[in-house]
Recover the amino acids of this structure.
């Protein structure tokens, strides 16, 4: 029974067929499948899509559609999970964005999608994000990690501004600040005072986050 | 002048249907996919410099279908600039096939070139990597006096009084003005005061716009790029660039950016997006010069088989179906200066694009992200290869390209391109002569190219 409906969900999910998936999930719940189990199944599907993306078999929009679909599913599953006794809040939150002046977002979106597909909640502030906006959001949501990206050497100084401001308000110790992006490297991250360098590509970014937030 | 109706066209973005950026992105993805299928476009790893006229024609048609279906999205107004087939036809009819760049005795004519055009292309060097301030002038004099390089895109500004240049700050504005002044000085010192330049190097529009000044900055006889936000999106900052450049009187240029793996989807989608952006730029940015930038994005490069195939088809489609001069060749390599792989990558990208009718633009070694890893030898290689490639047919070009790719393909796929050496390591900083090691390597690669049938 469960296998059959999971198979149906899989097919619909891989087609990004939102209508179908959003119909199947309540049906699975009605049939007595646990919400956590369903979530686990969906995460697996999302992770698979992430893997295919990181070897170039699927594309960014696939990740976006799958991510949106996951969001939709979570709307249904979250209240059920939170009502149940065995709810353990596992979601770790990453605050992410391109620093002020930088509108490159292809790389950032790839990193974000891989993080999301591995179960992290990513709050994406987008591109050209002022230091203050990072601080305000960090104060509001208290993320587990703040990740900054810069694609150009000319926006590295904005990254420094952002790190300086965040550190002056106590971030960078318990809540770490990660630097990354085309213009960043390990030496530079250290020089700027970031807590760590997150890696050269999306895959490395995922590994470092897994290690950091383990 | 690309279109007289420039202001009318961009004003459409004030009243079109409201959309969100995300909705537009997904629409690009879905429509591109549909067009690739409808026009039967398919990557062919054995025909990287294609002779398939039907494929070239279908590529152009697919791109026009895409553009008229979607239009261009203005992210700031949240509305679409609609573009009709009649707009396109009118613009293509009025296109000027030549750009007059530079002044006086140093004037250069950039022509629209046809596929297999025997005329020599214009060679735009530079672009490369950011460099330390103490070597910038030296490199510029080498570019300005190199027989194979007509002019450059300036190397990005890097430091100002020891600080990294910060985008949008007064220091960026000053560094950009300093950068262009230094190029002018280098050209004057080398006896070419009227040589043009391709802009821009600023990150913010304010820095780009404020360097348009006749005394020491960009002149009306120069050209400056305005880009779309990938894909087919724009905003006021870039429209402001286009309007100011046009009103100032300089040429606007554009590169149509198609990235594999983004909202274009696969390589075929990247190709039609690149073509659609270039044609759109003639109207939305008033652009007079194009460039077909088709690249991989997971590991940024333009020398994988599919990136080469895509760049060459997009270039062919543009040069066959429009009269707009195109400038694009070996923009970026994955390997660095003084490595065989870097020279192979330059050759392979330049042969195809030259034969397909482009003028040439490049070279940024190491994907353009390693300061000081750039020398004029890379742009010279592009120029010398391009001149030689004007004697080739597409069949001959394809044969040479297929011999070159296996020489570096494995390292590319493993993402293990060698980083090479910096300008400081490769040049005598007093005499400005390249070291023997690089000269020997350069000649060695040329000997291999001659062996393959490319006549120096
Ligand atoms: C595509 C591109 C554009 C597109 C951007 C489209 C978009 N929506 O993003 C357009 C055409 C709009 C553009 C515009 C400009 N660009 Co541009 N652009 C590029 C290009 C060719 C590729 C960037 C890219 O997407 N790479 C692919 C992604 C996947 O790689 P990535 O960004 O490095 O991300 C990976 C990793 O870094 C990592 N990562 C990324 N973020 C993070 C964060 C963390 C925390 C971690 C751990 C990891 C991580 O994972 C990613 C996935 O593997 C680069 C060259 C290059 N090699 O990068 C130039 C480049 C970045 N651009 C450059 C410039 C100068 C500009 C412009 C100023 C040009 C101009 N004068 O208009 C403008 C600036 C606009 C602005 N205000 O930001 C320069 C910067 C030079 C410098 N000073 O450093 C470059 C290096 C090219 C060059 N050599 O000239 N550009």
């Amino acid at each position: 029974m469960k296998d059959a409906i999971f198979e149906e969900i899989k097919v619909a999910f891989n087609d990004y067929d939102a209508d179908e998936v959003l119909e199947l999930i309540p049906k699975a719940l009605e049939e007595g499948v646990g919400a956590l189990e369903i979530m686990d199944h969906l995460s697996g599907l999302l992770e698979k899509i992430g893997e295919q993306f990181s070897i170039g078999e699927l594309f960014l929009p696939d990740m976006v559609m799958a991510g949106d679909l996951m969001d939709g599913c979570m709307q249904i599953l979250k209240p059920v999970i939170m009502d149940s006794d065995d709810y353990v809040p596992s979601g770790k939150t990453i605050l992410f964005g391109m620093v002020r002046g930088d509108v490159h977002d292809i790389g950032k979106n790839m990193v974000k999608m891989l993080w999301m597909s591995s179960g992290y909640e990513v709050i994406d502030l987008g591109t050209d994000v002022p230091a203050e906006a990072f601080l305000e959001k960090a104060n509001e949501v208290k993320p587990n990690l703040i990740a900054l990206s810069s694609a150009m050497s000319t926006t590295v100084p904005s990254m420094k501004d952002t790190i300086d401001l965040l550190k002056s308000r106590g971030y960078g110790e318990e809540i770490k600040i990660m630097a990354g992006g085309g213009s960043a490297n390990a030496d530079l991250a250290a020089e700027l005072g970031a807590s760590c360098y997150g890696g050269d590509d999306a895959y490395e970014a995922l590994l470092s986050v897994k290690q950091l937030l383990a | 002048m690309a279109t007289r109706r420039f202001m009318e066209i961009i004003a459409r973005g004030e009243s079109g249907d409201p959309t969100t950026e995300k909705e537009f992105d997904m629409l690009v993805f879905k429509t591109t996919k549909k067009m690739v299928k409808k026009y039967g476009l398919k990557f062919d790893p054995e025909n990287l410099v294609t002779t398939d006229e039907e494929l070239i024609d279908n590529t152009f048609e697919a791109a026009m279908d895409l553009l008229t279906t979607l239009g261009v999205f203005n992210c700031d107004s949240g509305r679409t600039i609609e573009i009709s087939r009649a707009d396109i036809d009118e613009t293509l009819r009025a296109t000027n096939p030549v750009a007059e760049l530079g002044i006086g005795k140093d004037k250069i004519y950039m022509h629209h070139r046809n596929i297999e055009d025997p005329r020599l292309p214009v060679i735009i060097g530079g672009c490369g990597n950011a460099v330390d301030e103490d070597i910038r002038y030296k490199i510029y004099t080498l570019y300005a006096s190199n027989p194979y390089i007509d002019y450059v895109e300036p190397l990005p500004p890097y430091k100002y009084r020891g600080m990294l240049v910060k985008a949008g700050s007064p220091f960026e504005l000053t560094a950009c003005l300093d950068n262009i002044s230094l190029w002018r000085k280098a050209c004057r010192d080398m006896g070419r005061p009227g040589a043009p330049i391709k802009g821009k190097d600023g990150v913010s529009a304010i820095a780009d716009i404020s360097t348009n000044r006749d005394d020491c900055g960009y002149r009306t006889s120069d050209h400056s790029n305005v880009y779309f936000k990938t894909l087919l999106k724009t905003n006021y900052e870039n429209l402001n660039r286009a309007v100011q450049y046009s009103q100032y009187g300089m040429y606007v240029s554009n590169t149509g950016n198609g990235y594999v793996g983004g909202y274009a989807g696969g390589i075929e989608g990247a190709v039609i997006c690149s073509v659609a952006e270039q044609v759109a730029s003639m109207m939305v940015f008033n652009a007079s010069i194009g460039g077909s930038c088709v690249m991989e994005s997971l590991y940024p490069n333009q020398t994988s088989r599919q990136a080469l195939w895509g760049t060459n088809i997009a270039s062919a489609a543009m040069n066959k179906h429009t009269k707009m001069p195109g400038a694009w060749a070996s923009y970026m390599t994955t390997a660095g200066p003084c490595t065989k792989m870097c020279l192979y990558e330059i050759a392979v990208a330049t042969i195809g694009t030259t034969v397909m009718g482009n003028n040439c633009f490049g070279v940024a070694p190491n994907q353009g992200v390693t300061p000081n890893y750039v020398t004029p030898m890379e742009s010279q290689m592009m120029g010398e290869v391009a001149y030689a490639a004007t004697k080739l047919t597409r069949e001959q070009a394809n044969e040479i390209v297929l011999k070159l790719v296996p020489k570096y393909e494995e390292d590319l796929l493993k993402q293990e391109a060698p980083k090479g050496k910096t300008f400081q390591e490769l040049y005598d900083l007093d005499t400005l002569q390249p070291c023997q090691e690089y000269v020997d390597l350069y000649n060695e690669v040329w000997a291999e190219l001659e062996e393959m049938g490319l006549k120096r």
